Amino acid sequence: MEIDPFIFRLSIFILSIFIGYYVVWSVTPSLHTPLMSVTNAISSVIIVGAIIAALAGNNENIFNEASVFGFLAIILAAVNIFGGFLVTQRMLAMYKKKKK
Amino acid sequence: MISTNLLALFYLVSGVLFILALRGLSSPETSRQGNFFGILGMLIAVVVTFLSTGNFSTSFIYVIVFILIGGSIGAFIAFKIPMTAMPELVAGFHSLVGLAAVFVAISAFLNPEAFNLGTTGNIKLASLIEMSIGAAVGAVTFSGSIIAFLKLRGIMSGAPITFPGQHILNLIILISLVALTYFLCVIQASNLFWTLIAISFLVGILLIIPIGGADMPVVISMLNSYSGWAAAGIGFTLENTALIITGALVGSSGAILSYIMCKGMNRSFFSVILGGFGGTDQISKSNNIEQKPVKSGNSDDAAFLMKNASSVIIVPGYGMAVAQAQHALREMVDTLKKNGIKVSYAIHPVAGRMPGHMNVLLAEANVPYDEVFELEEINNDFANCDVAYVIGANDVTNPVAKTDPQSPIYGMPILDVEKAKSVLFVKRSLSPGYAGVDNDLFYRENTLMLFADAKKMTEDIIKSF
């Protein structure tokens, strides 16, 4: 009997939680605020779902009831992606070492 | 048009780049490169998604336009936002992720064919469960973050809002959510789906209103975690590896931050969630404050003490952020350094309104990060330092956390400010801190209270030097 693809996805999910656990513990506490803004930006990769949903409408009816939600989600996720990465960039640029 | 397998491989690449983005944050030197990896991962994910749909019709142009609209709003906010407003910005961003997850789930529910999830009214059972979880968690994240945003922004009072029967109400709602999901899976009626989302919005609100202002570091971290789990739920629905990996990373990241924040306050996660901190203790403790003598001084006294010191430790807290005193503080430290005095900064894990809040503010004021130390690194140095300059912090320095088992903050790790030869306390008044506990340090022999606005006092000290 073949393994259900769901099990593979679940495996990826569980292993990623472990990766996340170890990677985040190694983040220096002084960078916890940028950590939050960057995790926020990357979780907006949900935009791929929004794009698929938005493009599912046909040409005569670009904004049908399902694709409208896709388009709305695109705006929200795009605010987050640009906002999240840029504000992280702005913060990280401020962290400087002592001039010797 | 690219094949499904190739698409999945590219999503995997995105996922790995996101891991590297977080890995980069282990030190400030590698962090900027890490952020670049994150952007690259996002770019790959978006581009291959376009290629996979192969739909470059008019809809495609609309998608690009909508991305640009959202992107310019985001970029505008990112450049305009002052660093002191970072907590509410992050809360606001979390709400957007949550709402986006809800929208994607709704879209998948209305048009399951587009995602290969079956047909309307006959969606695959597993997909329906994943979809419901994604939508529910997304909705909780959305409304919860909105409340957190309003509290942080000061639009809504930071005081915990509790009412009788709150916990029972929450329990009933939780049970009804599970029941709704079950019936949704059985009869697939769209009304049930809408109800599920509506109730989840309500849960988010009820979850955050009983939590007080100073517990915000935990709340923000927790919502960060939720936004990750919502993304993962949608990732399972859409069978998208990039989303699953990212969701897991963000979910565990937020959970760890919540844990670190709870530990910094010596409170259990559940006691924070159940809310209502310090409500009853305040009244009983406030009676015996007035009698004790307090030494207070002005900027000249403070400057005199510092001039004669050889080492000074600065302890910043939320009050510094409120007074926007970080730049003035840096100037004062420059003056001290010019006089050959050794200066370092001590930061408590829960100083400010979000994890790492003080570090960002100091970085903004051009304080080099290698002069800023965490609690464990610097706590032993207080015994050898001449002056501790406490600016806008209170509870995190209160020795009662070590001595009085009755105190609500007992067991909280504190900065050993009391061990310094002299303590300068910049504060507006003798009022107790957020926890409602009187600070013993105010009445110590070696403490000098500087009653003033943090920024004004710091500027005056520079002038008196």
Task: Provide an overview of this structure.
The complex is a heterodimer of chains A (100) and B (465). In chain A, helix 2 packs antiparallel against helix 4 and helix 3 (47-55) runs antiparallel to helix 4 (65-92). The longest helix of chain A is centred in the C-terminal third of the chain and has 28 residues, at 65-92. Chain A has 100 residues and is mostly helical. Chain A contains four helices and no strands. Chain B is an alpha/beta fold and 465 residues long. Chain B is built from 18 helices and eight strands. Chain B has helices spanning 4-24, 28-53, 58-80, 86-110, 125-153, 166-187, 190-208, 216-238, 241-265, 269-274, 281-285, 299-307, 318-323, 326-338, 357-364, 375-378, 400-403, 454-464, and strands at 118-119, 122-123, 311-316, 342-347, 372-374, 387-391, 422-427, 447-451. In chain B, the strands form two sheets. Chain B has a six-stranded parallel β-sheet. A two-stranded antiparallel sheet of chain B has the order 1-2. In chain B, helix 15 links the parallel strand 4 and strand 5 (372-374). Chain B is elongated. The termini of chain B are far apart. Classes of the chains: A mainly alpha (100), B alpha/beta (465). Chains A and B meet through helix 1, helix 2, helix 3 and helix 4 of A and helix 1, helix 2, helix 3, helix 4 and helix 8 of B.
